[in-house]
Amino acid sequence: MDGAQARVQEAISKMVNSLDKGCLRKMQVDMYQCSAKCCENASASLEDVQNCIDACSKDVNKAQAYLQNEIENFQNRLQRCAMSCQDKLRDEMPAKPSDKDVEKGRLGLEKCVIECADSHVEYIPGLTKKMLEVLKSKSY
């Protein structure tokens, strides 16, 4: 199961990198340039400068919150799939399982969880595309 977990983590990492390079970094550049302009205003009060900087970071903060929520939703779906495997194992296990039953159940559980992980890794390209579209349209 460790291999499946590693594949999921690697796929999520690639997704985050793709989102960063595809959209987030540009948003951050814009935010920092906007913030720098706020700081260049010598006649502005401290409060005005801070409000300006806060306004500059609004889109990046919203985008990051959106991404975090989407990744959490994905991880929750994966966790529910694994829990479904555990439920299936419990339903199939006899009341007094033998060592053979326990080993068969363990192997079945492992196979089911690996299948969950693999199927969810396949969802990541579509999820990445959707998230990029949302980020680019700023409809988060």
Automatic annotation (TrEMBL):
GO cellular component, one term: cytoplasm
Pfam families reported in the protein's UniProt record: DUF842 (PF05811)
TM stretches of this protein: none
Family under the similarity heading: Belongs to the FAM136 family.
The name this protein goes by in its record: Protein fam136a
Source organism per UniProt: Plakobranchus ocellatus
